[in-house]
From TrEMBL:
<dbReference type="InterPro" id="IPR009006">
    <property type="entry name" value="Ala_racemase/Decarboxylase_C"/>
</dbReference>
<keyword id="KW-0456">Lyase</keyword>
<feature type="compositionally biased region" description="Polar residues">
    <location>
        <begin position="467"/>
        <end position="476"/>
    </location>
</feature>
<feature type="region of interest" description="Disordered">
    <location>
        <begin position="463"/>
        <end position="494"/>
    </location>
</feature>
<dbReference type="InterPro" id="IPR029066">
    <property type="entry name" value="PLP-binding_barrel"/>
</dbReference>
<keyword id="KW-0663">Pyridoxal phosphate</keyword>
<dbReference type="Pfam" id="PF02784">
    <property type="entry name" value="Orn_Arg_deC_N"/>
</dbReference>
<dbReference type="GO" id="GO:0033388">
    <property type="term" value="P:putrescine biosynthetic process from arginine"/>
</dbReference>
<dbReference type="GO" id="GO:0008792">
    <property type="term" value="F:arginine decarboxylase activity"/>
</dbReference>
<dbReference type="GO" id="GO:0008295">
    <property type="term" value="P:spermidine biosynthetic process"/>
</dbReference>
<feature type="domain" description="Orn/DAP/Arg decarboxylase 2 N-terminal">
    <location>
        <begin position="73"/>
        <end position="310"/>
    </location>
</feature>
<dbReference type="InterPro" id="IPR022644">
    <property type="entry name" value="De-COase2_N"/>
</dbReference>
<dbReference type="GO" id="GO:0006527">
    <property type="term" value="P:L-arginine catabolic process"/>
</dbReference>
<dbReference type="InterPro" id="IPR002985">
    <property type="entry name" value="Arg_decrbxlase"/>
</dbReference>
<protein>
    <submittedName>
        <fullName>Arginine decarboxylase</fullName>
        <ecNumber>4.1.1.19</ecNumber>
    </submittedName>
</protein>
């Protein structure tokens, strides 16, 4: 019978730049994963830090090449969208590559301040401030602006600008406007709720930005939530956006930049089928063509890639702890973790990842379903991007079997929560950071131990020193009830 490695070599061009097998064990970016497992155990989250810089430089290269090919006269600025992963090790690694940041919440701002304190960002680092902003967020942004930080609030609704009118004391303020795109035809809504509708953009500029000598409209922004794809939908939204840019640029000479959002995809299968360079080339060609047609100078281009920055750096490794044959055909490999809690996108939106065994590559293989530890019937994984079936090595009682999910570095902790209370109290796994020293040698360091029961007991209120603090003023953005809505307290003294 054929072995697992035969199956993979027949299905894909294998090995790849990223994945290789030596002595029947998997290497991820040349990191021998069995060594990591022997040292740290499973379940394990792992971040291969050098991938972050590699992708930042790749994206810069795609834009540089495209600019050269089309003799494009604008500049390119790489921003990292922090919501993909707020962890300090991700931000610090990305910032080593001289990037800029995009934020989405008031809670991003203490992070920016801490990065500034550590000397990782400067006052000239662009902070593109996106999101629907509540008072604390506009207040924090205004404070940064007044202190000379290079913040560009991207207006998401018509009222947001009023906060800056009141709070910004600096001499000038660069503003952006997010334009609400139409959604993909099969989506539940016609137009995105995010951003300002096309028809309102000009009026907002004319009534609120142009008359105020402090304000400069610097940037228009759009984001296609289905990502940068070679589809009629993407091209039609980009074209519409660029025509609006040209219309606005003619009435607003300060406008010289566009932010085309995130959405550069990552690989979710060993089958590479996305031509990054060609896609960026076409974007640049389109932008330039539309500007030339309208006699408008081409804009400087900003991106805010989240998944592309951090997604491919992440992996989750599990041990198969049991095999359960539940009828004549359905064999389950039970893992020592959970898809619902550790990889919520795999459960919530049927996201596929690159999934490979870590060892036993010379064993024969069989079709299996992977089962998670929670008691939720949906806690499973059994198809792949390229196939409706999932295969794993057959292993004996004497052997251990480990499996890895790769390119899991974006959004999973933001969505699933981190170190909190999750389904069936499945704990957050240990998290190890893998890096290379100046000589290219692999280094590892533990970022987080596995979550312990004590942390859950505290959150759940079973400890005196509770996670839920009583009667302390909140620093968050809790809505305060209107005076009249405050319920009268019952008089208990009586
Ligand atoms: C405004 C905005 N920019 C950038 C991103 C990052 O997208 P991605 O992770 O696909 O690059 C998002 C993601 O939701 C977003 O909402």
């Amino acid at each position: 019978m054929k072995s697992y490695i035969d199956l993979i070599q027949q299905t894909f061009e294998f090995p790849t730049m990223e994945f290789n097998v030596e002595n029947n064990e998997l290497l991820f970016n040349n990191v021998p994963l069995m060594d990591i497992i022997e040292e740290h155990g499973t379940p394990l989250k792992l971040t291969y830090l050098p991938k972050i810089g590699e992708h930042i430089e790749n994206a810069r290269m795609f834009f540089r090449n495209a600019f050269k090919r089309h003799n494009y006269k604008g500049s390119y600025t790489y921003c990292y969208c922090t919501k993909s992963s707020h962890f300090s090790f991700v931000l610090e690694e990305a910032l080593k590559h001289n990037i800029h940041l995009e934020t989405s919440s008031s809670f991003d701002i203490p992070i920016i301040r801490e990065l500034y304190r550590r000397g990782k960002v400067s006052k000239s680092t662009y902070i593109l401030a996106n999101g629907y902003k509540r008072p604390l967020y506009t207040q924090y942004l205004s404070e940064l602006i007044n202190e000379g930080f290079n913040v560009v609030p991207i207006l998401d609704n018509l009222k947001e600008i009023e906060s800056y009118e009141q709070l910004v004391t600096a001499d000038s303020l660069n503003l952006g406007i997010r334009i609400a795109t139409d959604e993909e035809p099969n989506f539940a809504f016609y137009t995105s709720r995010l951003g300002i509708r096309y028809n309102d953009v000009q009026q907002l500029y004319k009534e609120k930005i142009e008359p105020n000598p402090k304000f400069k409209l610097k940037m228009l922004h759009f984001f296609i939530n289905t990502g940068i794809k070679d589809s009629a939908y993407y091209w039609s939204e980009l074209t519409r956006f660029m025509f609006k840019y040209c219309e606005m640029q003619k009435m607003c000479p300060d406008l010289d930049s566009i932010d085309i959002g995130g959405g550069l995809p990552i690989q979710t299968s060993l089958q590479a089928n996305y031509d990054y360079q060609q896609m960026i080339d076409e974007i640049i060609e389109n932008i330039q063509w539309i500007c030339n047609k309208n006699n408008v100078p081409v804009p400087h281009i900003f991106t805010e890639f989240g998944s592309y920055t951090v997604g491919e750096s992440g992996a989750v490794i599990y041990k198969v702890i049991d095999k359960k044959l539940q009828n004549d055909k359905e064999l389950w490999y039970m893992i020592d973790g959970s898809f619902i809690t550790h990889l919520p996108d795999s459960w919530g939106m049927n996201q596929k990842y690159i999934m490979l065994p870590i060892n036993n590559w010379d064993n024969p293989y069989q079709k299996v379903n992977l089962g998670g530890l929670t008691c939720d019937s949906q806690d499973f994984y059994n198809t792949e991007m390229h196939s409706a079936d999932l295969y794993m090595p057959i292993f004996s009682e004497e052997e251990d079997q480990y499996i890895g999910f790769f390119h899991t570095g974006a959004y999973q902790e933001s969505l699933g929560g981190y170190g909190g209370i999750q389904h069936c109290l499945i704990p957050a796994p240990k998290h190890v950071l893998v890096d290379r020293d100046a000589d290219g040698r692999i280094t590892t360091r533990v970022f987080a131990k596995p979550q312990d029961s004590e942390s859950m007991m505290r959150i759940l209120g079973f400890r005196d020193e509770s996670y839920v603090q009583q009667d302390t003023p909140t620093e968050g953005e809790q809505s305060k009830p209107e005076e009249s809505e405050v319920p009268e307290m019952a008089d208990t003294k009586n």
